[in-house]
Amino acid sequence: MNTTFLEYVVFFVASLMMLGGAIGVILFKNPVHAALGLVLTLFGVAVQFVAQEAHFLAAVQVIVYAGAIVVLFLFVIMLLGVDRAVDLSIEPISIQRPLAAVMTVGLVGLVSAAVIKAGDAIGTLNPGLGLDVAGETTADGQNIVSNDGNIQQLARNLYNDHVLAFQLTSVLLIVAVVGTVLLTRKWPKQGAAT
Amino acid sequence: MADLVWLIPAFPLFGFLTLLLLGRRFSEPLAGYFATAMVFVSWIVAVAVYFDLVAKPEEERSVTVTLFSWLPVGDLQIDMAFLADPLSITMCLFVLGIGGLIHLFAVGYMHGDPKFSKFFLYLSLFIFSMTLLVLGENLLVTFLGWEGVGTCSYLLISFWHTRESAATAGKKAFITNRVGDFGVMLAMFLAFESVGSVSYSALNGSAVAGTLSAATASAIAMLLLLGATGKSAQLPLYVWLPDAMEGPTPVSALIHAATMVTSGVYLLTRVNPIIAESAAWAPTMIAWIGVGTALFAATIAVAQNDIKKVLAYSTVSQLGYMFLAVGTGAYVAAIFHMITHAFFKALLFLGSGSVIHGMHHHQDMRHFGGLRKLMPVTSATFIVGWLAIAGVPPFSGFWSKDEILAYAYDDSKALWAVGLVTAVLTAFYMSRQVFMTFFGRYRYADALPEELQLTWNNRVREAEARVVEAEAGLASVKDEAVSSADKVEKAQEKLAQRETEMDDVDPSDDKAVEKAAKNLDKAREAVVKAQESAQESVAAIRPLQDKVETIRTEASIISVEAINGMSDETVLNDEELPASVRERREFQPRESPWQMTVPLGLLAIAAIGAGGMNLPFTKDLHFLGKWLEPSLFHNEAHLKLSGTELWVLAIIAVTGGLIGISMAVRIYLHEKTERATVELPILADAWKYDSAVTNFMGGPGRKFFDLVSWFDRTIVDGAVNGTGRLVRSVGGELRAMQSGLVRSYAALIAVGAVALIAWFLVRTTF
Amino acid sequence: MAQTGSCDVIAAVEPTWYLIVSSLLFGIGAFGLLVRRNPLVMFMCIELMLNAANLTFVALATSLGDINGQTAVFFVMVVAAAEVVVGLGILVSILRRRPGATADDLAELKG
Fold first, then answer.
1. Nearest beta carbon to residue A99 from set B747, B761, B766
2. B340, exposed or middle or buried, with CB in 10 Å at 0-12, 13-18, 19+?
3. What is the ipTM of this complex?
4. Which domains does chain C carry?
5. Dist. CA B227–CA B263, nearest whole Å
6. Is B750 on the interface with C (CB under 8 A)?
7. Extended strands (E) in B547-679
8. Tens of pLDDT along B176-218?
9. How far is the C-alpha of C2 from the C-alpha of B372, rounded, in Å?
10. What is the DSSP annotation of B654-691?
11. Which is it for the CA torsion A98, A99, A101, A106, positive or negative?
12. B744 CB near a chain C CB, below 8 Å?
């Protein structure tokens, strides 16, 4: 086994996981099953991230997406009691499914065609160059000494070039939380003390 | 001084506005005198402008006074401007002069009318519009006045609007004029399109310079001719003028004799360069329309019985002469005739108004007669007018009409012949009018046929009643005879009975014998008495029968008399005639007040002397011709006749006039020939022209209008509405997309996104 | 790391493949969004599409040698998280009133 072959196997398996999970999301009748399919997809994506040497993102993917968001989904499903299976065969808008199929095929086809056509411009995958090289110089000329060079580089980029956006995301998160709390709050009846 | 020409319309306008605001406060004669004063002041300004123009050298006799820029719209520049040149000032002089006299006349004529001040309000507006028309420097100012006089004509014709016929006549005048106005408007559009301006200086200038093509000139001339036929009552648009006599007589005199109806002739004279530039058939058409109308109207006037209708048709006929003059290029003759016609026609109309006023608003000439002694001033002035219009020298009408006929002869013998026939007819019907009204027996108190009929019917009825009564008496006497005969029989029976009793009585019984003898005697006496009375009654029958016979014969005589002697009222007694006849016998026509007779006198003087304006003997006496030259741009036709020919034509014309007069004398004065030979019913019916127009408009005309209306409703509106319906239906279809379903929106977004991606990728990548 | 001679049977993993796979994932997510009526499943399909985008970012970051791609993924994930919070809050407040509602029942925008 050499790395190329291993990469290939990893890619294939991860892709299977992703696509399989996706198909599961759209095909399962029970929303809970669909959530599980989603988890499978997210794991597949995480594996792809690792293969790309984007370790931090892989970790964040698992922790935030699979760990928090999907859990949130499941909480809501259980809270609302929509975990019953729905009948997938009925479709009120008759044109919807054929139209969606056509659009999807078209979209995928177009993008794929464009991507294949532009093949050389995309370059080749160079994991490690500038990302995780022990002892080798990085693109910006700094020595990365440890194996968590990815995090360092990411952090440097984030806090130097995009610090404003970073701060704004924190605002965004607070706003989102406050807003949601207000949205879902049950207001007391009139006459009662607020 | 000529710069003050704008004052000429200003005074009547001021009068109009004052009367509009304060008219109701003015007491009766004040409104009239105020309006008259305004017109006279305006006339004085016109006289002043005239003298100023006379003082100027000939080239400078065209003064334009611009008040303000009226319509500056891109390439179209129209100013409110007045043109004081010989033609317009001449028109102003006689319009305002005659207008003022007619205002004065109307003060007397409209006395007692509840809408007195409103009358003068309309008259002031009319004078204002007329001055605008005449003084206008461009077609649009003239058109403003043109429309204004049309409106005033409508207002004044239907002045007594509570009368149905008056209201209808007003509408008819306005609508018929509108058809003509359409022609003037098209002419203006065409003028602007070809020359770039509607100003007379530009139009006439381009025609004189030769830059106006013959086709355009002909088109403009024909369109203006259409307008002129409407306003000046020529064929085919003359129909409103006879009906316009529904208005008060001053209106008829002013508008429909002297001023408004001359506007058409004025307009054509004003644009004489354009007529000169147009194709040869255009003036010929004008001439033939004119002379044709003249003959047409003259034939109708022969059979009219309303004093004003005769004058109305006469006006149409004389206007035809003016058009004939314009068509043969004799513009001076046309204006000359216009002026003299204004004088004598106004005189005739005012005279007829005086007659109508004196005869308590009766207008049928068959009931006039012998008014010469009763209304001396009116009849004298009317006779002057009559001689003028009949073309008797030296009155003014002769000079002007003769000039027109001379130019007509020069142009085409056919035109001259028709004109001559019309002149004969003119003399005839005017003489007829004068004889029927002023000469002959005073027929006003004559009983009308209906009244005679009534009286004879009464007589016959009474006679028949007497017959019935007599017959009833006879019948009763006969009954009596029969009953007395019965009585005789009964008495005889009683006698026989008594005789038998006598025979049966016992001779020994004296008492019974006595009684029986007494009874017998009584019975005999009774028989004798009864027989006597029977004889009496029989004897009475005979004379009574005779009496009945006589009465019957009387009655039959009366009925025969009634049929034969219907028209003879001398047979009837005065008490038998109806009250209306007695009223009329007591009525005495009077002469009119001074406000009416003074204008008549002045106009008579003018009618006599106006001929001096343009005497044909030598060139030096052509005052009017020389004066009008600047306005005519040398378009006046040149008479190629020699002096001898002119004398011959004049003599022929005078002879024709005398023939007409003598024919009228024969029929109406001496009554040697039946009037029915001349007064044909078709003439009285105006050649059924009116009914033909009505039938056409109601029949095929209506169908055409319905078709146009259908087109407008179905196709034009249908297109507009159809567009709306189309938009709605498409909108309705598209509305289905707004289902509110998020997923279909998402699907549409997907469609859009894919389309965009496809477009971008195709553009950049492939 | 030395790249020893590989088994040349199979080609090396090209970034193109990643892009095609992620477009497939995106397509599947779009299809599911259009076809599923359950709001929560529709939300999950949105998450699929976001993940596809993330994968694309990372693949291109690796192939072009630029770290900004990964930063973008970071931000996408933060925003996705916030979006899920708010979206699920909305869904909860709607579905509380109308339990069992599907996407087709929420048709107030009907015109």
1. B747
2. buried
3. 0.86
4. 15-103 (1.10.287.3510)
5. 10
6. yes
7. none
8. 889 889 999 999 999 898 888 888 888 888 888 888 888 888 9
9. 149
10. HHHHHHHHHHHIIIIIS--S-GGGTS-HHHHTGGGHHH
11. positive
12. no
B partners (3+ CB pairs within 8 A) are A, C
Distance from CA of A94 to the nearest CA of B (A): 10
For B331-357, give the DSSP string. Answer: HHHHHHHHHHHHHHHHHHHHHHHHHHH
Q: How far is B761 from chain A (nearest CA, A)?
A: 7
CB contacts of B740 in chain A (<8 Å) are none
Task: For residue C71, give the nearest of A48, A79, A154 by CB distance.
Answer: A154
Assigned token pair, B479: 């009954």
> For residue B138, what is the DSSP state?
B
Please return the burial class of B300, using the count of CB atoms within 10 Å of its CB with bins 0-12, 13-18 and 19+: buried
Interface check for B732 against chain C (CB to CB < 8 A): the answer is: no
pLDDT at residue B549, as a whole number: 81
The 3-state secondary structure of B435-473 reads HHHHCCCCCCCCCCHHHHHHHHHHHHHHHHHHHHHHHHH
Tell me phi and psi for residue B429, to 5 degrees.
-75, -30
Per-residue confidence (pLDDT) for residue A35, from 0 to 100 = 94
Tens digits of residue pLDDT in A49-63: 998 888 899 999 999
pLDDT of residue B569: 60
- What is the C-alpha to C-alpha distance for residues B372 and B108, in angstroms, rounded to an integer? 21
Q: Is there a contact between C73 and A7 if contact means CB atoms under 8 Å apart?
A: no
The identity of residue A43, as a single letter, is: F
Looking at residue A58, its pLDDT comes to 94
Residues of A in contact with B741 (CB under 8 A): 92-93
**Quick check: B478 and B541 in contact, CB under 8 A?**
yes
B434 closest CA partner among B533, B500, B348 = B348
* Residue A60 confidence (pLDDT): 94
Q: How many CA atoms are closer than 13 Å to the CA of A46, on its beta-carbon side?
A: 17
| Cα distance between residue C82 and residue A170, in whole Å | 10
How far is Cα A79 from Cα C87, in angstroms, rounded to an integer?
15
Neighboring chain B residues of A95 at a CB cutoff of 8 Å:
747
- Whether residues B758 and A113 touch (CB distance < 8 A) is answered with no
Look at residues B59, B160, B76, B179 and name the one whose alpha carbon lies nearest to residue B113. Answer: B160
Which residues of chain B carry a pLDDT beneath 50?
none
Mutation site, A103, A116, A117, interface B, largest B CB count within 10 A = A103
The C-alpha atoms of residue B653 and residue B160 are separated, in whole angstroms, by 41
pTM: 0.64
- The DSSP code for C3 is -
Q: Which chains touch C (3 or more CB pairs under 8 A)?
A: A, B
Report the distance separating Cα A155 and Cα B755, nearest Å: 39
Q: What is the DSSP string of B289-309?
A: HHHHHHHHHHHHHTT--BHHH
Q: What is the dihedral of CA B167, B172, B178, B179, to 10 degrees?
A: 170
Yes or no, beta carbons of B761 and A110 under 8 Å apart: yes
- Phi-psi domain of B361 (left: phi exceeds 0; alpha: psi -120 through 50; beta: other): left
With beta carbons less than 8 A apart as the criterion, state whether B498 and B523 touch.
Answer: yes
| E strand or H helix that includes residue A94 | none
Residues B201, B85: contact at Cβ < 8 Å?
A: no
Shortest alpha-carbon distance between residue B703 and chain A (Å): 56
List all residues 6 or more positions away from B222 whose beta carbon is below 8 Å from its beta carbon: B183, B278, B282, B285
**pLDDT confidence bin for A43, thresholds 50/70/90:** very high
B754 contact A CB<8A: yes
Q: State which H helix or E strand residue B84 sits in.
A: strand B76-84
CB pairs under 8 A between A and B: 39
Cβ C109–B743 below 8 Å, yes or no? Answer: no
